[in-house]
Structure formats: C-alpha cells, structure tokens
Amino acid sequence: MKDNFPYLTEEEENKVWTNALIAIRRKEKQKRNRKNIMYGGIAAVVILSGSVLGYNFLIKPDVYMAVSDPRKVLLPDKSEVILQKGAKLTVEKSFPSDTREVTLDGDAIFKISKSKEHPFIVHGRNYETKVLGTVFKIYQNEKSFSVDLYEGKVLVYRSEKPNESFELKPKETFSNLGTVQVARISATSRSTESQLKSSLSFNDCSLSKVAQIIEETYNVKMIIPDKDKVVKITISSTNSTAKSLIEIIAFQLDFKIKQINDKTFQLE
C-alpha cells in the first residue's frame, strides 16, 4: 500500500526543521519574557516596600499619643515629656539638630535637657515656646494657650509674630486668656497676694475686653462709659499693679480716674 503523502525533498525537510526550531525558540522567548515580567513585578514590589520602609524608618516623623492616660516620652536628647490625656507629640527624624523642635497638640509637661547651643522649641496652637533647659507645662485648646514655668527660663511668642516674645521666670504663668489679642504674665500661685502685680499686653483690643481681663487678673472693678467700650487700645505693662495699669490706660485715652474704693476704679 502506498502512502498518501509524498516524500519530502531534502530542501523541504530542512525548511520544516528550520520553521520548527524558530517556533520553539519563539515560545521559549515568550516564556522568558513572562518570567522577566513576573520577576520584574516582584522586584518592583520589593523596591516599593523597601522605599515605604525606608520612608517610615528614615523620614516619617515619630508621633506619640496619650490616648486614655498620661504618657511619658523620653526624647533622644534625654528630655522628658509627659503627655496629658488626648495629647499628641510629633518629633521629626532629624531631632535633635542645631535647634530641637517638636510639635504639641494638647497639654504636656516638659523637662528639657539643658543646652545653651541647642535651643528647644515647642510648636503649639498659634504659639511657640522656646527654652534652653527648664521644666514647664503647656496647656491649650481651640482658643486658650497657657504656660506654667517651674524651673529655668522660657520665651513665649505667637507663631506669626516671633519678634514679640514674652519672657517667663520660675513660678510665672503666661496666658492669652482665650484671645490672641491678649498676653498676661502673672504668678503661678493663685493667692490674692500673688495677684497684686502682673504683666499684661493688649494688641488692638476693645476697652471692654481690657476691663474684663483687668478685673479677672487683679480682682478689681474697672468702670468705663458705655460709649467707649468699643474703643480699641494697644498697650503693654510689666509687673504693674491694677492702679498703675489703669492710670496708663487713662493717660493714653485721655480719661480721668475716679477711685471709688480700693477695688473700684471709674474712667470718665
């Protein structure tokens, strides 16, 4: 019985083998390409993961939070921070550098390692507290900002006005009394005797607000005419009594003072 297929010539047979080898090599190349894509994808994931880990380890700031209880944080320069409940402290990876800087949201007590060459700055809500080495407490909310100084010396200033700073001495408290237009430095002790002298600064503040703060600070009554309550005043006093401060205000606004008793002053 004869085959239905004719025999191939030598030339035709070589051509068939050549095409077969080309097809085999093409499939092998496709397999290699798929492997390269797969390995390349794995490599990309490894590189990406390494980049994320590197960012977290080398660049991303350290964040410390006191969720339900106070939390003590020891910084690389041996400074100590006790975060009060709900507070958050952000520390850059570059800390400590020439200037030691942290950002505080909420309340905290600081015990700063002393260094004259490397000042320590706490960035708070609209205010900065600059120290060289001391113990102090910051407490703040949406409007109020206060600093109690226990040891050393600090400078407090508004973030947007760094040249207008207020220096605190031990057992003194800085407070804006709920408005950035006001700055008060008074004795940390709340006894009546300690409140006899205070330092106050008002920036474009209404006379009614000034009177309110003077009354709260010195436990006195300052009476002003109704028509003048909206008058704005910018004034500062250092270590002043209630009477001396009211005299300064009266002089600046061209008022006369009528002292009704030891705790009541009337401007007219």
Automatic annotation (TrEMBL):
Pfam families: FecR, FecR_C. Residues 71-154 form the FecR protein domain. The keyword DNA-binding does not apply. InterPro entries: FecR, FecR_C, Ferrdict_sens_TM. GO terms for molecular function: sigma factor antagonist activity. Residues 200-264 form the Protein FecR C-terminal domain. Keywords: Membrane, Transmembrane, Transmembrane helix. The chain crosses the membrane at residues 36-58. Gene3D superfamilies: 2.60.120.1440, 3.55.50.30. This is FecR family protein.
